[in-house]
Queue: 3 jobs
Job 1
Amino acid sequence: MDLEARAHSEHPEELRLWLRLLTCTQLIEKQVRNELRERFGTTLPRFDLMSQLERAPDGLKMNELSRRMMVTGGNVTGVTDQLVAEGLVERVDVEGDRRAWRVRLTPRGRRLFNDMAQQHEAWIVDAFAALNAKEIAQLHKLLGKVKQHSHQQLAEAV
C-alpha cells in the first residue's frame, strides 16, 4: 500500500494531491536506487555526494558537503571514506587549516560519475514517459507556483 491509498474521497483534493506527489517521488526514487545498485553497484547517497563534488571541481569541505546534502557530518564522513577507499574521491589539505580538508572527485571518480549521471538522466526521463512535452511543461509550471508560494510562506514566518 502506498501513501496515496491512505486518502479517502472525503479528504480535501489538496491532501490527495500531496499524497500522490509523495507516492510518485518514492516510486521514482526506488527505481533510481535499484538501477544504481544493479548497474553500478552503488547507492543513492554515494551518487548524491559525487554529484555535489562534480559541481565543485576544486572540491568541498566536509561541512559544505553536509550542508548541501542536508545530512549529518557523520553520514558524509562514512560515504566519503568508502569512496576514498575505492579511489573515486580524494581528500586534499586546506591551506591554513590543518584540521580541515577538501574532498574532490578523482579522474576515475569523475568518469564513473559521468556514466552514472547519463544513466540517471535517462531513468528520470523514462519515469515521465507517460506525459507528453506539453503536459510536462504544464506540470513544471504548476509545481513552480506551489514552490514559490511555499517560499513566500517560509519567508513570512521568519
Job 2
Amino acid sequence: MRERRYSSTSPERLASALFDVAAESGLEGASVREIAKRAGVSIGAVQHHFSTKDEMFVFALRNLVDKLLMRLKAVDHSGDPAQALFSAMSQLLPLDEARSREAHVMAAFAVRAATSPSLAEVRRKTLFTIRTGLSAVLIRIGIPEAETRAALLLATVDGLALDAIGSPALYPSEYLEHALDIQIAMILQGADLLSSVELAS
C-alpha cells in the first residue's frame, strides 16, 4: 500500500529538486521540507525514499557525478591530445549556465564532504576516476610523471571553478578557457619541462 502511495515520486525526481535548491542557495537551504516543496511531494514521500538527509545528499551527488562522468567518457581522445584534454576539463568549469549551476552544487558538496564520510567517499572515487582517465591519456602520448601531471591539471581546474563561482566578474568564460589552454600546454610540455625541474633541484 505504501509503495502505491508514493509511486509518483522517484529518487531521481528528489535529486533533481535538491540540485535546484543547492544551485540557488547551497546545501544549507536543502531541508527535507524544501526538497519536498520543490518536487511537489509530501515530506513523507521524501522520507519514504531517504531515511536521512545525508542519504539523500549521497544519492544526489552520485546522480550528478554519473552525468558528469558520462560526458567525460564521450570525449573523443583519438585526435589532438590538447583538444581532447580541453574538451574533457572544460566540462568541470562554469563556462555556461548549466555548468555554472553544476559547479555551485559540486562546491557545496565538497564543503559538506568535510564532515560527511559518505559524501567524502563519493568525492574520492570521483576524483580518482577522473585523475586515472587523465593519466591514461598522458601515458598514451608518452608524457612523464603522468599521474602527477593529471593531479595538477585536475587541481587547477577545481581551483579555477571554485574561484570563478566565488568571483564570477574576475573569471569570465573567455579567461577560464584561456587559463585552461595554458595549463594544458604546460602539462603537455613533457620531458623538456621535467628535465628543467630536475636540473634546478
Job 3
Amino acid sequence: MSAALALSSAGAEPHRGCPLCPRLHDFIAEWRLREPTWFNAPVPTFSAAAGDKTVELLIVGLAPGLRGANRTGRPFTGDYAGDLLYSTLHRFGFSRGTFRARPDDGVELTGAALTNAVRCVPPENKPVGAEIATCRRFLTATIARYPNLRAIVTLGTIAHQSTVRALGLRVAQFPFAHGARRDAGGIALFSSYHCSRYNTNTGRLTEEMFVGVFREVREFLESE
C-alpha cells in the first residue's frame, strides 16, 4: 500500500491497516491474534462533539498504551494516564460526562481534542525516530484540521518535539520544559511532563503540577 493510500479521506487519520511503520504494523498484527476483541489499530483523534470548528485546544500525547488506547480505541482511555487527564479536562470545562475508562462511557470533549504523536502502539511504549517522523504527517494534518485552534498542550518531550516540527518550527528554538508556554506561529504551545503512572509515582509530575498547566491554558483561552 502506498503512503497516499495509508491516509484516510480526511488526511488526518491512518487507515486501520496502515503499513507505513512495519515494526508497529507487525506488533499490532501480533496482538490482533492474541486479543481479537481489542481495538488493535491506529487510534484516531478524539475530538469535540460539537465539531472541528469549536476546537481551540489540542492535547498531544506520545502513543497509545498497549492495554489502554490500543485496547479501547480512544486516546488515554484504559490506563492511569487517562484517569488524571480526563479528570483535569473535566475540572476546567474541556469535557463533560463521567469518565469510566471505556469508549462507551459517554464522555464528550468541549472545545478540545486529544491525539498522539504516534498513532500505533509501539513495543515497550518506545517508538523509534523513523516511526515518529513517519507518523508526523497525521499530526500535521490533525493540527490543520482545526481552523480555530489557539493552544496545544504537549505531553512529554517526544510529543513536544514532534509537534514543534509539525508546526514547521525548529526544536532548538522551542525546547521542552514542563510548564513552559511559547508562541509557536500564532498558537500558544504549552508543555507538560506526560501524565504517566511512572512520572506520578516517582514524583516527577504531581497532580498539582499537571493541573497548573491546564489552569494556565484555560486562563489563556478566556483572556482574549
